[in-house]
Amino acid sequence: MNGIINIYKPSGESSFQTVNRVKKILGANKCGHTGTLDPIAEGVLPVCVNQATKLSDYIMAFEKEYIAEIVLGKKTDTMDITGKVLKENSNCYLEKKQLENILDSFTGNICLKIPSYSSVKIGGKRAYQLARKGMIEDAGSRHTYIKNIELLNYEFPTFIVKVKCSKGTYIRSLVDAIGEQSGCYAVMSGLVRSKNGHFDMRDSLTPDDLKNKVAEGDFSFFIPVNNVLNWPVAVIKNEVIERVFNGMDPEKQDYLRLPLEDGEYFFISTPDGKIAAFSKKIYEGKKPLKLVKVFKNFL
Q: What domains can be seen in the chain, in order of their start residue?
């Protein structure tokens, strides 16, 4: 039981809680997600199961798409409606064109604050744990890339945007920055992650959907990792398989197929198509690919 499941995380529970529900439903040994969603948020949360967890960092690198609801007029310590109000501006008003111009100014490479109420680690502790104790107000900042912000609806003081961005983007931070630049302040009142790379919310399963499918004996929801990570496949000879399982890099003559011109990362497959490991290309010596992770069985 290895692969990825396109799970729809409901609002009101943490990403960890959702993953834990999936793990219990499947009876899996290991499960991990590919990018945290705040408890207030909902949407696409790809879950890697068992050996597929070894690839979660690479899947996490995909572009994300979010739909956020934002309310002008206040600023909170969490940057969303659940937090303590720090500032208010009830006299502020923005014309639609003004708002669109502000949104446009946040596209491209930008630097945003990391929310103090977030899961980022500071000195080995989660930021939100320190913030709850009043030990930090600032969790630092992070460079990110905003590909596009589209204004979907505006009825003052509430507006809805669609954001396409790189991994590691805190939408709450973007909202807070938009509020600061407008002078009105702003908080996020709702958030849906609509896409995460190849994964779309229209094809996702809630944990309850997953439970029903498992009860019916339907496991068609598993997505093979090589369908998600479109890496080239290097094929090794049968007599080399055991050496790969022991962590030894194959030499050039150990391959039946070696498409070195096609990429940086490669799946290493047996002649009958089973994935034994993945590797990274190196450019010198007798061993052109260096093993990164080996799958204890086959993936």
A: 3-62+199-225 (3.30.2350.10), 64-196 (3.30.2350.10), 231-294 (2.30.130.10)
Kindly state the tokens that stand for 206. Answer: 């809630």
Decide the pairing of beta strands 141-155 and 158-165.
antiparallel
Q: Which of 38, 176, 249, 254 is catalytic?
A: 38
**Residue 118: per-residue pLDDT:** 65
Over the chain (299 residues), what is each successive 10-residue block's mean pLDDT?
Answer: 94 94 96 90 96 91 96 95 93 95 97 78 72 70 94 97 95 96 96 95 97 96 91 95 93 92 90 94 83 85
pLDDT at residue 282 in the model: 84
The DSSP H or E segment spanning 15 is helix 15-26
Beta-sheet pairing, 233-236 with 265-269: parallel
Residue type for position 273: G
Q: Where are the beta strands (DSSP E) in the chain?
A: 3-9, 31-33, 42-49, 64-72, 74-76, 85-88, 108-113, 121-122, 125-126, 141-155, 158-165, 186-196, 199-200, 233-236, 255-257, 265-269, 275-281, 289-294
The per-residue pLDDT for 164 is: 98
Whole-angstrom distance, CA of residue 158 vs CA of residue 154: 6
d(CA 284, CA 146): 37
Q: Which of 14, 7, 40 is nearest to 172 (CA)?
A: 40
pLDDT of residue 137: 72
203 is catalytic: no
User: Three-state SS for 250?
Assistant: coil
Q: What is the pTM of this model?
A: 0.90
Helix (H, G, I), strand (E, B) or coil at 201: helix
Look at residue 136 in the predicted model and tell me its pLDDT.
Answer: 63
